Amino acid sequence: MMEQPATMPFQAADMDSAFRALFDSSPCGLILLDEAGRIVHVNQRLQDIFDYDASEMLGQPVEMLLPHRDRAQHVGLRDGFIKSPSVRPMGLGRDLSGRRKDGMEIPVEIALTFVDLPQGRMTCALVIDITLRKRAELRLREANVQLEEFTHVASHDLRSPLRGIANLIEFIEEDYGESAPPEVRRNLGRMADRISAMERLIDDLLTYARAGRRTLKTEAIDLGSIVDEVIALEAPGPGVHIDVDIALEPFEGVRVPISTVLRNLVSNAVKHHDLDEKHILVRARAEGIMCVIDVRDDGPGIAQAAQGRAFRLFQTVSSSGRNNAGLGLAVTKRLVEAHGGNIELMSDDGQRGCHFRVYWPRFARSDLDDC
């Protein structure tokens, strides 16, 4: 007995119905044009993008969906495409705009293709409204510009008076010489310490600003050796026990940022621990396209009410919710996200320990690396 095929082959009518269903249900705007550039068919998403009903568009020139300034030029471009069609994005390298029914312009991305039908050659355009993406890009650019401006002020306008105060302290110390009373020497020392602290804070601000810039040079990353270097540099001292479990093959990446992230997390675990005996675990494994790095400690942890502030500027939070000035975790988060990764904080109330998990890309991605 002959086995029946699992699925029956499509008939021409079935293909026509399937095409129409796919066209009408597409999440992207789709528009079909005849050889004269008139609108033959549109799907629901295109109606939503431009706020026109299909009945208002059918039979009209496609230029009705363009800003007035672009319409005359577009007629020539459209005729050129019909004479020599190809599958390609439209306006590559340029910002494209559409025009809604109410006159509002919207940023769009458009891809073009063509199909030969009994009625003639048809042009099909795929239209995507990228308004939300453009808004997000604008907000990000504005935030980065403001941060650059702020750090420039911090670097130049704050450093100068600090240096002036430091010089005055040196002059006073020279004038007093060895005859300075102990209380005066103590107070001058405290002032010098405060100035040094402020200078370190300025350096940290500059580090935070630069952390948002992606490093492009890649090399083979051996995470085990990087962790060993971090531990050696931290020189944690007696009472600090760091266990390392790296189950990961070397991968292509950027060494300095990932080393900085690990150093900040290990340093954070040591610095904020409240016991003489400190236990820290650094573990890494591959998970899909990501390298998953866990840094855990058995310290006091971070209260859930304070975890939302942990990655903010000038926030150092403890299990009690008390916070002090700090930038370590803010820099860490900025570095991780600038290189296409993500960082999570896991710490439960009533239980000791803090757990940071970093997701770091193991492979180059066109949206991050093809610059």
UniProtKB/TrEMBL annotation:
Its EC number is 2.7.13.3. Gene3D superfamilies: 1.10.287.130, Histidine kinase-like ATPase, C-terminal domain (3.30.565.10), PAS domain (3.30.450.20). Signal peptide: none annotated. One of its GO terms (biological process) is regulation of DNA-templated transcription. It catalyses: ATP + protein L-histidine = ADP + protein N-phospho-L-histidine. Keywords: Kinase, Membrane, Phosphoprotein, Transferase. This is histidine kinase. It comes from Novosphingobium sediminicola.
